[in-house]
Design brief:
The protein is of the alpha/beta class. The protein has 17 helices and 14 strands. The protein has helices spanning 11-22, 34-41, 52-59, 70-75, 96-110, 128-141, 163-168, 180-189, 203-234, 239-247, 281-294, 300-311, 314-321, 351-360, 373-379, 391-395, 413-420; strands spanning 3-7, 26-30, 64-67, 79-82, 116-120, 149-153, 173-177, 198-201, 331-335, 364-368, 385-387, 400-403, 425-428, 441-443. α1 crosses α3, α5 packs parallel to α6 and α9 (203-234) crosses α11 (281-294). Bound molecules: uridine-5'-diphosphate-glucuronic acid. Residues 157-160, 214, 217, 221, 224, 268-271, 273, 275-278, 280-281, 284, 339-340 line the site of uridine-5'-diphosphate-glucuronic acid.
Length: 446
């Protein structure tokens, strides 16, 4: 059992804190927002994440505590995780929260007699732990890193919607530290995860592993989309069939011991679509590009990944254009608003540029999403976008239907269109519908 404090109770901090508490550790989750702290102490997660509420109910008040007092929490723990946000400010990564929390931790360390490990978990560009966090901690504490305290870096690999399962059943554990004591503390903390590959390295490498992992996913998505767009342009090639062929290679679908084939999950990032979004992939790739360029290292490949992704939502507008010479007063329905299924998160969702482009062209818009409607309301007014309660209500009366998010229930869309609205054009932004089911079907890469 270790005594842990976690600075920042966002998505990563709270999931990490709750999971570590469920493993029996004593965890203090710290945030500057007292409202959040009250919610957490009442076992109400401030955001939706599968299984988080029941984890909080089991641990809160027993060995998980939420507080606004960072100073006390540092004195009362042996290791502190930094899990504050690292947004992209339009030009580069914004380290303001990381710096601020480092100042507070440094001031607390001044009053702390024993050794303490400070571990960065936020996604930060390579060099941040050593060159930003460490000097602030030394300055504010008056102490020496490597002797009085240690700095570590332990990136997270949590996918929204399955973050708790990801934490409990990790594919890898990356531990970055520049001296033995902190590495030992981190190794002890993760000793419960038997059989998981552990990569022990320095902080800069740990930071880079996180970016290299996310950039690879983004790269594959834009690659698949570039190929898909070429398929469309050349004609008589369907990108879905092309990708099926690509996925069947032994590289992507290896043979198992009994001779059967399995498809590697990475293949799910190689599909034609209207682009990637979310709070991580776009921001991380942009931050890595900016960091590379700042250090005189051009990043042409990743720049192209972002550029392809910026254009990709416009493919659905082009496909609508095959059926409507003008979109003025054309009734279009958007199916799916969140950046991916099973979340209400609309950050950087391709739905946003698609809706904007349709509004500019004078279309009359309805939308349906199982859970993200309230998020869309923050971005678009009711006279711009009317939100439907059901899939049926969304489809009835539409001239065109644009499928943006791969929600499972959208499998029934062809059936509903055939029954209620056979003249409607379906533009499939995720290629999840069998094209043979509808006569007026358009899809990315078709
Ligand atoms: C991503 C990574 O998958 C996690 O491994 C990582 O830990 C996390 O970011 C993070 O940095 O914290 P997440 O942002 O939850 O996780 O999103 P993904 O499930 O990876 O989906 C990304 C986007 O790509 C979605 O918008 C999805 O619709 C899109 N996508 C996916 C495509 O456009 N095409 C595809 O072929 C596959």
């Amino acid at each position: 059992m270790m005594r842990i404090s976690v600075a920042g109770t966002g998505y990563v901090g709270l999931v990490t804190g709750a999971c570590l508490a469920s493993q029996g550790h004593h965890v203090l989750c710290v945030d500057t927002d007292p409202k959040k702290i009250d919610e957490i102490n009442a076992a109400r997660p401030p955001f939706y994440e599968t299984g988080l509420k029941s984890l909080l109910e089991k641990t809160i008040g027993k060995n998980l505590f939420a507080t606004t007092n960072l100073h006390e929490s540092i004195l009362d723990s042996e290791i502190t995780f930094i899990t504050v946000g690292t947004p992209f400010d339009g030009k580069e990564i914004d380290l303001a929260y990381v710096k601020e929390v480092s100042v507070q931790i440094g001031l607390a360390l001044k009053d702390k007699p024993g050794y303490h490990a400070v571990v960065v978990k936020s996604t930060v560009v390579p060099g941040t732990s050593d060159e930003v966090v460490l000097p602030i901690l030394e300055e504010k504490s008056g102490k020496t890193a490597g002797r009085d305290f240690g700095v570590g870096m332990n990136p997270e690999f949590l996918t929204e919607g399955q973050a708790i399962a990801d934490f409990m059943n990790p594919d890898r554990i990356v531990l970055g530290a520049n001296e033995e004591k902190t590495m030992e503390i981190l190794s002890n903390l993760y000793s419960a995860f038997e059989g998981v590959p552990i990569i022990r390295t320095n902080c800069r490498t740990a930071e880079m592993i996180k970016y290299a992992s996310n950039a690879l996913l983004a790269l594959q998505i834009s690659y698949a989309n570039e190929i898909a767009n070429l398929c469309s342009a050349l004609g008589s090639i369907d990108a879905v069939d092309v990708m099926k062929g690509v996925h069947s290679s032994y590289y992507l679908s290896p043979k198992t011991g009994d001779g059967s084939r399995i498809t590697a999950p990475i293949a799910s990032f190689l599909e034609a679509g209207c682009g990637f979004g979310g709070s991580c992939l776009p921001k991380d790739v942009k931050a890595l590009i900016a960091h590379g360029e700042k250090h005189g290292n051009a990043m042409p490949l990743l720049n192209a990944v972002i550029e392809t992704n910026r254009r990709q939502p416009m493919e659905v507008i082009r496909l609508l254009g095959k059926h409507f010479s003008s979109l003025m007063n054309v009734r279009i329905t958007i199916l799916g608003l969140s950046f991916k299924p099973d979340t209400d998160d609309m950050r950087e969702s391709p739905a946003i540029p698609i809706i904007q482009a349709l509004l500019e062209r004078g279309a009359i818009l309805k939308a349906y999403d199982p859970v993200a409607g309230h998020e869309a309301r923050k971005l678009f007014q009711s006279d711009q976008l009317s939100l439907c309660e059901t899939l049926e209500e969304a489809i009835v009366g539409a001239d065109g239907v644009v499928l943006v998010t791969r929600w499972g229930q959208f499998r029934y869309v062809p059936e509903l269109i055939t029954k209620m609205n056979p003249c409607a054009v379906l533009v499939d932004g995720r290629r999840m519908i069998d094209k043979r089911l509808l006569s007026r079907y358009e899809g990315i890469g078709l």
